[in-house]
Each structure stands twice: as structure tokens, then as C-alpha cells.
Design goal:
heterodimer; A: alpha+beta; B: 278 residues; SH3 type barrels; elongated
Chain lengths: 171, 278
């Protein structure tokens, strides 16, 4: 029993140390580098590293040199077996209003080791609330919208299902 | 002095510290070997746009000569087509028409002068152009002249005998007038642009040097603007199209524009196309 306790303590310590000592900022820069190769560049005003998290503030997102969106804050939290990314106050360029919602109050992405090939997604904005998932194995994004009356021009991008309007795309 | 610290505790503490140092070291090695230590920041391009004015100079101060080609004025009338013969069966529709003195045999889906053969009956053929349908009756020896009618609205037949009135695009001689609703339609529904026209960037090294038109769907407003496959868009209203951002800015500002001057390169010639938005 003593051995089990010691092993559990060792694993816990190892796990916590692994996350705490993780060079989160450098990992983020590496992600930026990968995205830059796809034509997506992110400028951020402030980066702050926490024990288990990384906070980015006042971000501007460019796609192929075009300023497409600004995000007030992105919080990334990870325990490795559970990861949560929260984005607050996203403003998308008005010219893209027919394709994506212009104002998003909050978008949350969560990944759990229990469902390793799925990323859960929730969003709040002018359109009301939306929930969905990203299927990593099928490379598919599915988002269900709760209120149909607030969808406006976004509806053009959506399909009507039995449970209401939804957006689906394979990437 | 007696030592009060348990030696096994010290041993464990050293073990823990060793583990922490090891993990830190591992991350450090990974950081040096694989991770990027520098942020990839986007450098904002110049936001100031060159001022663009069209100034009409006096004859004494005429501007430098420029190769300028105006969009061709297309004369298009269903009346130019005479239906000579019809073969209509369940599996095939073939008609013989006379156009500008020449005889042509058309199968379903084929076009003459932009009019696409859609269907036929025993005494008539139906053509479509720009979403409108035209019925042409067989040229008979008794009557001597064929009958023409539009299926959608009878008034359209009259319009067809005049200079082409393009949907949303009107030819005003030296320039073309674009209906603002057409612009609004394309800005609201970006996807419809890509259905009607294909645009691909041209790069000189890493720098964008204009956008090539890969296709223009027939009968669409883009075709009516005088744009052709292979044209290279060089600038819009004095703004060089040397980045995606420049193209996107032009797209965003088009709703407020009253005039558009497009500089294109067709073959080796550079041309200027002028449009008025009304």
C-alpha cells in the first residue's frame, strides 16, 4: 500500500511539474509559426503565463495579410488530460458578416482525454447560443444554433435539421 | 548538536528536487531543439491609401497617352437567329439555325450568339440568355418571317432589339454603369462572386503582383463588365493590388464608391476600364 501511495505521489508530482514547467509561451510561439505557414498571423498586445494557463490579450488575427478579427482575451488552461480555451469578445470584420457572426461574446473550446478525437465547442453572440463539436478523426465541424430568429444573414450558411439550424463543414 | 531533521526526509526532498530539475531540463532541451522563442507578428502595411482623383484636364494639358480599351459593345438580338429546321425527339433535340447568313446546327445546350438552345417543339425552339427564355418559331415559306417571343415577359423582346441592357450593367458608351444593388448583392454574398468569377494571385517572389482571372462565367455581370479569362487585375481606383489586404480593402470600399477605374493587363497591353456605380 505504501508503494502505491508513493507511486501515486510521484506521478502526481511529475504531472504537476510537467505542466508548471511547460514553456507555454514558447509553445504558443511555435503554434504561431505553424499558423503563419497557413497564412494566419496573430498579433497580441500582452502574454502572461500562469501555472496551468496562458493568457493572451488584445489579439488581432490576420488571414493572408487581411485583418479579419480582433479578440479581447484568450485564456488557455491545460491539465494535459483536460484543456480549455476561452475566447472573449471577438469582433469579426463587417465585410465577412455574411459568412460568420460579427460579434461573439464568448467562444469556448474544451478537450478531454475521455473523448480524445473530439473538441467540444460553445459560443454566445448576436445569434444567441450555439453548441457544437470538432471531430478530429472525420475532420468535421458541426455547430447547432439554438435561436433561429436571431440568425439573420448567417442563415444563408446554415442547414435546417430536425432540431433546428446547424452549420457543418469538412476541413 | 543533535541533528533534528529526519535523514529519510532529506533523501526524499533531494529526490523531489532532482525530479523537478530533470523535468525543467527536459523542457529546456525541447525548447532549444523545437520550440520557437520569438513571436511571429504581422507587420501592418501602410494604411494610408494614395489619393485618387479623376481630373479632367484641358486639351493643352492632356494627360500622358495611355492604351485604353473600352469594353466591347455587344449587339445581341434573338432576331438575328432564324430557325430553319427542328429535329425533336425524346432523346435528342437538334435544330438548324441561320445566323448572320451562316447556317449552324445546334444540339441542346449549344449556343449561338450567346443564346443557348434549351428545348424545341415541332415548330419552335426555345433559347435562353441571361435567365430569360426566347421562343423562336420555324421559318415557314408561307409566312415568310419567323415569330419571336420571350417566354418570361413580352416587353423583353423590344429590349433585345436595342443595345444590350445587361442585368445590373448598362453600357453608356465610354464607360459602363453598374447598378448599386448588384454591388450590394455581391458584397452581401461573397460566395456568389466565386461562382461567377475565378481569381488567383500572381506572385513575383513573395510579393503579390496582381490577380489573374481564371474564368468568367458567361452571362454574368462580370462578363458584362468586359472582364475576360487571363486578364490580370493590377489596380482599382489607383490602389495597386499588391496584397490580399489591398484587394480586400477594395472589396470593402466598393459599396461607397461612385466610380471604379480598373487597370488590367490583357496580354502585353495594359488597359483601363471605367465604371460608374449608380
Amino acid at each position: 500500500m505504501q508503494m502505491v501511495k508513493k507511486a501515486a505521489l510521484f506521478i502526481l508530482l511529475f504531472w504537476v511539474a510537467l505542466i508548471v514547467f511547460m514553456p507555454k509561451e514558447e509553445l504558443y510561439f511555435s503554434l504561431e509559426k505553424v499558423l503563419a505557414k497557413q497564412g494566419i498571423e496573430i498579433n497580441e498586445a500582452k502574454i502572461s503565463e500562469g501555472m496551468f494557463s496562458l493568457d493572451l490579450q488584445e489579439l488581432t488575427i490576420y488571414a493572408k495579410g487581411i485583418k479579419v478579427a480582433t479578440v479581447q482575451e484568450i485564456q488557455c488552461f491545460t491539465l494535459l488530460f483536460y484543456t480549455k480555451i476561452t475566447m472573449d469578445n471577438i469582433s469579426v470584420d463587417k465585410a465577412l458578416s455574411s459568412m460568420i457572426p460579427v460579434k461573439l461574446e464568448k467562444v469556448q473550446l474544451t478537450h478531454s482525454i475521455l473523448l480524445p478525437m473530439k473538441v467540444a465547442l460553445t459560443g454566445e453572440g448576436d445569434f444567441g447560443q450555439a453548441t457544437g463539436s470538432i471531430d478530429l478523426s472525420e475532420r468535421k465541424i458541426h455547430i447547432d444554433f439554438e435561436k433561429s430568429e436571431k440568425l439573420g444573414s448567417l442563415r444563408r450558411q446554415l442547414k435546417k435539421g430536425e432540431e433546428g439550424w446547424y452549420y457543418e463543414i469538412n476541413y | 548538536m543533535k541533528l533534528t531533521i529526519d535523514p529519510s526526509f532529506v533523501k526524499r526532498l533531494i529526490g523531489v528536487l532532482f525530479l523537478l530539475v530533470l523535468i525543467k531540463l527536459l523542457w529546456f532541451v525541447a525548447e532549444v531543439a523545437w520550440f520557437s522563442v520569438k513571436s511571429v507578428d504581422h507587420a501592418e502595411g501602410k494604411t494610408a491609401k494614395p489619393l485618387y482623383y479623376r481630373i479632367k484636364l484641358t486639351p493643352n494639358q492632356s494627360r500622358a497617352p495611355k492604351i485604353k480599351k473600352r469594353a466591347p459593345v455587344i449587339k445581341s438580338s434573338i432576331r438575328d437567329i432564324k430557325l430553319l429546321a427542328v429535329y425533336h425527339a425524346s432523346d435528342a433535340t437538334v435544330v438548324t439555325v441561320q445566323y448572320k447568313g451562316k447556317t449552324k446546327v445546334l444540339a441542346r445546350g449549344e449556343a449561338v450568339n450567346g443564346f443557348v438552345l434549351e428545348d424545341a417543339g415541332s415548330q419552335f425552339a426555345i433559347f435562353t440568355k441571361d435567365g430569360k427564355e426566347y421562343r423562336v418559331t420555324l421559318l415557314s415559306s408561307k409566312s415568310g418571317s419567323p415569330k419571336y417571343s420571350t417566354v418570361s415577359t413580352p416587353q423583353e423582346e423590344k429590349q433585345e432589339t436595342q443595345e444590350v441592357d445587361m442585368d445590373g450593367v448598362v453600357d453608356a458608351g465610354d464607360h459602363k454603369i453598374i447598378d448599386r444593388t448588384l454591388i450590394e448583392h455581391y458584397t452581401k454574398d461573397m460566395k456568389s462572386i466565386y461562382k461567377d468569377i475565378g481569381i488567383q494571385e500572381i506572385k513575383k517572389g513573395k510579393q503579390i503582383d496582381g490577380f489573374r482571372i481564371t474564368f468568367v462565367k458567361r452571362g454574368t455581370p462580370f462578363a458584362k463588365l468586359g472582364l475576360q479569362r487571363g486578364d490580370i487585375l493590377k489596380s482599382i481606383n489607383g490602389q495597386d493590388l499588391d496584397s490580399y489586404n489591398a484587394a480586400f480593402e477594395a472589396y470593402k470600399n466598393i459599396n461607397d464608391a461612385t466610380n471604379v477605374t480598373l487597370v488590367i493587363q490583357r496580354g502585353k497591353k495594359e488597359m483601363e476600364l471605367e465604371y460608374e456605380i449608380n
